[in-house]
Amino acid sequence: MSTALALRSVGLTWETRRGQLEALSDVNLQIDDGEFVALLGPSGCGKSTVLKLAAGLIPATSGTVEVASEKVTGPGQRTGVVFQKPNLLPWKNVLNNVLLPARTAGLPVQPARQRAMALLELVGLADFAGDYPFELSGGMQQRVGIARMLLHDPDLLLMDEPFAALDALTREALMLELQRIWGQERKSVLFITHSIQEAMFLADRVLVMSPRPGRIVEELAIPLPRPRTLETLADEQFMALCQHLRRHFTDA
After folding, report:
1. d(CA 125, CA 46)
2. Residues in domain ABC transporter (predicted)?
3. Residues 6 or more apart from 184 whose CB is under 8 A from it?
4. Residue 207 forms part of a structural domain
């Protein structure tokens, strides 16, 4: 199996007014093709920084970052990114928001439009293609963001706490939705979260980061069968695995 993303001995140090700040230290992780990996950790540990490194938005101070076995030197077409807020353009309708990456990716107009409509169908928003962001709920806006991420058919999806700003019921609905989309698309995913339940429900493996300077302190394979349902949240094995991970954040 080939490797979708690899960070090898990655470190990152910021220059601040007060001197150097070590954000990441000796981070090693690997995601195989088609694998869903969640990166779990406390606020400020560097989770989002890892995602920005993978996306080519910032360079590492040390170590190497590779996507599809090629060194990352900047943003590329192999990756798609969704952030906590979908950042939709309010003056464009849903369809045109999904089409935003088409120009930068150099996609032909008509095939891109057809794919955008197919993606809106995939995320359950085909009937809202002509609506504007202010007419959508927060969960619907985030689904537009997911469709936009998929437009140029990236191999690797990078998701930075995409459900963090949503209420609990909407988060549960979107966890199911994302699982369904991933099951159909089978993309490789790096999913950043501080929610133990979210990580456990969605991922094949969960990687746990330490407080700053962030590093990987545990890798846990999730043996729960798919597709997972809301009943999975009450499963004894699910709860036991959650409790196992919780010790990283409750130990004195």
Report:
1. 33
2. 7-236
3. 122
4. yes
Q: How far is CA 86 from CA 91, 125, 127, 156, 161, in A?
A: 14, 15, 19, 18, 11
Q: In this structure, what token pair is assigned to residue 97?
A: 């928001």
How do residues 42-71 score in pLDDT, each as one tens digit? Answer: 888 999 999 999 999 999 999 999 999 999
Question: CA 232 to CA 8: how far, in whole Å?
Answer: 34
Q: With contact defined as beta carbons under 8 Å apart, do 175 and 202 qualify?
A: yes
246 vs 42, 218, 223, CA distance in Å? 11, 12, 18
Q: Which of 103, 118, 153 lies at the terminal end of a domain, its last residue? A: 153
Do 185 and 62 share a structural domain?
Answer: yes
Say yes or no to pLDDT of 252 above 70: no
Which residues face 82 on adjacent strands? Answer: 159
